[in-house]
Specification:
alpha/beta, Four Helix Bundle (Hemerythrin (Met), subunit A), Rossmann fold, 434 Repressor (Amino-terminal Domain), 3 domains, eight-stranded mixed beta sheet, 20 helices, 9% strand, elongated, binds guanosine-5'-diphosphate, binds magnesium ion, SRP54, EC 3.6.5.4, GTPase activity, 7S RNA binding
């Protein structure tokens, strides 16, 4: 059914569609852009090939070329891949302690980011405690205490203690006793991944049982960050990534690789050395930065908007002049499906707003009507008056419905056109009426 349906649409519109050939240049450009942004080569290949697969045959909008449209598709897909919406932390309610474990290599930005997150959560109304469990670097505890003073968040530290796990155990009971509801544990990193580091983190992890295990990865290290994330995820288990130092001029390709390799969301982005420079992660901004083709993307967006407006105007004209055909009616079904609701269709029509019964749209009725119209020839759809008894019989058997159903649809359609004509001046009534059909 969907095949014939899209075939029909193509026939009707007569516009060109995306083929491997007419987007060749764009594909090359995209590959280069992604590699320049330091996206892993394997990820680039897989990503681009999948997107070509998906985009093949898609209708090309007027006023843009197939390559440009493909770039927009790549952008949208990348946004989806990066996480369609911004992901926050999965913390427990305010009366239960939510431990958060930080991990990452030395210098990646763990200590700074712990403090940034503590400040953020404090502002959100939680009661955080910072825990100094990096006992390797001599000045690490002091660094965290200083940051604690700046943010006004208490820091738990045990003087002279050499074992991070012991600090964590004591911190847990301290936090519970003093009714902190969030505990952010800073740990030590090494210059490179090694077994000692992993064992230490694993041990802390099993004692702490964190609700969030966050890996801090330096955006500037690119591909290396991906390897590190993979390793931590396999050996300790992470729930998300914070990409630090995003204020450097990196294009951020690591983000895409990180997500596609670990399947774990990027939750925050560090954008400076200052304590408040931690931002929520925005997939669309990240995609634009990685792809670096914002101009083309907004060009295509504009074209899409224009077409939508034109379609809406055309629809309105048709409604008013009663040249609205069954083919138009059918196209509204597709549009409704594409946009998710009739409400948005109605809102697209200038001056038309109304409350639409969503249930009526997903009903069997709509599917039935769609099937009936699809079984008609184009000629029949454009002029339903030619549909006599024998055509009705043919259409019914072609659509797996009955002549009764076909009759009902045609009668309803006639009535609808008549009412539309009468009501062209009353937009509100129009909307209400549309909702009945
Ligand atoms: P750790 O060894 O993982 O604890 O890393 P630190 O928190 O000590 O940070 C290492 C360095 O990176 C410090 O000089 C921080 O100021 C700096 N840093 C951390 N996050 C950011 C960031 O988002 N942007 C910039 N520009 N610098 C950062
Ligand atoms: Mg540190």
């Amino acid at each position: 059914l969907t095949r014939t349906f899209s075939d029909v649409l193509r026939q009707v519109s007569g516009k060109s569609s995306i083929s491997e050939k007419n987007i060749q240049d764009a594909v090359e450009e995209i590959k280069i852009a992604l590699l320049e942004a330091d996206v892993n080569l394997r990820v680039v290949r897989r990503f681009v090939n999948h997107t070509i697969e998906e985009a093949r045959g898609e209708k090309v909008l007027r006023s843009v070329n197939p390559g440009q449209q493909f770039i927009k598709i790549v952008h949208d897909r990348m946004v989806n891949l990066l996480g369609s919406e911004t992901e926050g932390l999965q913390l427990k309610g305010p009366d239960t302690l939510s431990p958060i474990l930080f991990m990452g290599l030395q210098g990646s930005g763990k200590t700074t980011t712990c403090a940034k997150l503590a400040l953020r959560l404090k502002k959100e109304g939680r009661k955080p405690l910072l825990v100094a469990a990096d006992l390797v670097r001599p000045a690490a505890v002091k660094q965290l205490q200083l940051l604690g003073e700046q943010t006004g968040v208490p820091v738990f530290a045990v003087e002279g203690e050499k074992k991070p796990v012991k600090v964590v155990k004591q911190a847990l009971s301290f936090a519970k006793k003093n009714s902190f509801n969030t505990m952010i544990v800073d740990t030590s990193g090494r210059m490179h991944l090694d077994d000692d580091l992993m064992k230490e983190i694993q041990e802390i992890n099993s004692v702490l049982k964190p609700v969030e295990g966050l890996l801090v990865a330096d955006a500037m290290t690119g591909q290396q960050a991906v390897e590190i994330a993979k390793e931590f995820n396999e050996r300790v288990g992470i729930t998300g990534v914070i990409l630090s130092k995003f204020d450097s001029d990196t294009r951020g390709g690591a983000a895409l690789s990180l997500k596609s390799v670990t399947k774990k969301p990027i939750k925050y982005v560090g954008v400076g050395e200052k304590i408040d420079e931690l931002e929520q992660f925005h997939p669309d901004r990240m995609a634009s930065r990685i792809l670096g083709m914002g101009d083309v993307v907004s060009l295509v967006e504009k074209a899409q908007e224009t077409i939508q407006e034109e379609e809406a105007e055309e629809l309105q004209k048709k409604l008013q002049s009663s040249t609205f055909t069954l083919q138009d009616y059918l196209e509204q079904f597709t549009r409704i499906k594409k946009m998710g609701s009739l409400q948005s269709l109605v809102e697209m029509i200038p001056g038309m707003k109304g409350n639409i019964d969503e249930d009526a749209l997903n009903s069997k009725e709509m599917k039935k009507e769609e099937a009936i119209i699809l079984s008609m020839t184009l000629q029949e759809r454009h002029n339903h008056r030619i549909i006599g008894p024998s055509r009705r019989k043919r259409i019914a058997s072609g659509s797996g419905t009955s002549v009764f159903d076909v009759n009902r649809l045609l009668k309803k359609f006639d009535k609808m056109r008549l009412m539309m004509k009468k009501m062209t001046k009353n937009k509100k009534l129009q909307a209400q009426m549309l909702s009945q059909f």
